[in-house]
């Protein structure tokens, strides 16, 4: 990708100001769509026509499609009790190079009156904030939508009140995109204080009409309510997916069973998906789901081995296929009382498919596992990074509202 803006792409002949541009509009569009958001924001000042072009939804989509070919990550860093949004190229991880924390205050969440990054879609980041009335115990919660590349941010949207009676109640958000209506949507799960609760509602907020709708009939309780970031909702193919647990009747008693609950953002209806048939529901650390290779993946451990299964056709339980298996000994994980001492979470697979990035709950490092030589190494590219906060990210011109 070019590193400098073009010095001369568009000019008129001196003899006749009304002469059409030397370069056709299609070529200008193609060239401009290859530049970073930083330069494009500067280029909007070149002329009214360029400002109109760069602001056009069609151009924004073309640029987004190109940007997706150069994916990035985002992380949350912590310094002096302040949290910052940290974007960086994927390649830094594979090269084990350090990640610089932006000194620009515009990346700090405290400046946005928010405390949580919900997620990112198409370069748009959803933030959440709250305030609590200590007397009434009512917590006011709001959302803000932010584009870190353009630095545009929305007003507080979707505000609602939540009764925080026991001081440890909370809401869990997930950010997604409805392709059918080209609408950004946020889902929220209310806290479960008593685990005997058998039914939980999901609320959905649509950016555009700014309305919350309640969806009833959630068939199982998402683990995100119990364990937070370790079991975040997963956005994929116009759906939000939660690893959940439900009670089923066995021969003698009630047995807990893991299932995947999928919410279609278009129809706002639930579908229940079962894990791979080879998964043993007993023993080991709780499984997890993630997105890699544009597919839903299911990971778990069994004794001394770690497994990753891939759903090659989303929504088809018969399409589960074992993608990877390795021994904990090969990644330097110690055991205690027959169980691994850390929990691994798959985060990303390199473009060549050789190297897998895994977070671990030690949080001070990540693991790079090479599938070809069956070896792993820990990477500590910045000790202020919260590895479980890593998310796919791409720079874009997408507006905040």
Topology:
Elements: H1 25-32, H2 37-43, H3 48-55, H4 57-67, E1 72-79, E2 82-89, H5 91-94, E3 116-121, E4 124-132, E5 138-147, E6 152-153, E7 157-163, E8 171-178, E9 183-190, E10 202-206, E11 211-215, E12 221-222, H6 224-227, E13 234-236, E14 239-249, E15 254-264, E16 269-273, E17 288-292, E18 295-302, E19 305-311, E20 320-327, E21 335-336, E22 339-340, E23 344-349, E24 355-360, E25 366-370, E26 375-379, E27 385-393
- Percent helix among the residues? 10-25%
Q: Give the uncertain stretches in residue-range form.
A: 7-13, 192-198
Structural class: mainly beta
The rough form would be described as globular
Mean pLDDT: 82
Task: Count the E strands.
Answer: 27
Strand content: 35-45%
Number of helices: 6
Cα Rg? 23 Å
What distance separates the N and C termini? 29 Å
Question: What tags apply to this protein structure?
Answer:
single chain, 401 residues, mainly beta, 5-stranded antiparallel beta sheet, 6 helices, 10% helix, globular
């Amino acid at each position: 990708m070019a590193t400098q803006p073009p010095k001369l792409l568009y000019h008129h002949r001196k003899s006749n100001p009304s002469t059409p541009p030397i370069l056709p509009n299609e070529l200008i569009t193609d060239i401009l769509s290859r530049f970073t958001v930083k330069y494009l924001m500067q280029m909007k000042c070149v002329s009214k026509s360029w400002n109109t072009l760069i602001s056009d939804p069609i151009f924004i989509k073309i640029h987004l499609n190109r940007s997706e070919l150069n994916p990035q990550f985002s992380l949350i860093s912590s310094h002096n009790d302040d949290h910052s949004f940290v974007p960086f190229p994927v390649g830094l991880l594979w090269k084990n190079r350090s990640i610089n924390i932006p000194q620009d205050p515009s990346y700090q969440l405290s400046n946005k009156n928010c405390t949580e990054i919900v997620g990112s879609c198409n370069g748009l980041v959803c933030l959440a904030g709250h305030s609590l009335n200590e007397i009434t115990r009512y917590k006011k919660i709001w959302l803000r939508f932010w584009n870190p590349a353009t630095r545009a941010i929305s007003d507080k949207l979707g505000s609602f009140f939540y009764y925080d009676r026991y001081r440890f109640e909370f809401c869990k958000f997930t950010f997604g995109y409805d392709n059918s209506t080209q609408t950004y949507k946020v889902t929220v799960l209310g806290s479960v204080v008593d685990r005997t609760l058998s039914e939980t509602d999901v609320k959905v907020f649509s950016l555009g009409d700014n309305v919350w709708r309640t969806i009833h009939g959630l068939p199982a309780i998402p683990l995100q309510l119990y364990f937070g970031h370790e079991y975040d909702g997963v956005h994929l193919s116009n759906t939000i997916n939660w690893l959940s647990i439900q009670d089923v009747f066995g021969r003698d008693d009630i047995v807990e069973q893991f299932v995947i609950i999928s919410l279609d953002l278009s129809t706002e209806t639930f579908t229940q998906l079962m894990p791979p048939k080879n998964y043993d529901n007993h023993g080991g650390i709780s499984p997890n789901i993630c997105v890699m290779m544009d597919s839903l993946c299911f990971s778990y451990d069994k004794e001394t081995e770690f497994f990753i299964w891939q759903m090659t056709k989303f929504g088809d339980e018969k399409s589960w296929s074992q993608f990877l298996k390795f021994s904990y000994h090969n990644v330097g994980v110690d055991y205690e009382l027959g169980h691994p001492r850390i929990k691994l979470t798959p985060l990303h697979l390199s473009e060549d498919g050789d190297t897998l990035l895994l977070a671990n709950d030690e949080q001070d490092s990540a693991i790079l596992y090479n599938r070809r030589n069956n070896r792993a190494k820990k990477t500590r590219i910045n000790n202020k990074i919260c590895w479980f906060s890593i998310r796919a990210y791409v720079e874009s011109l997408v507006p905040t509202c």
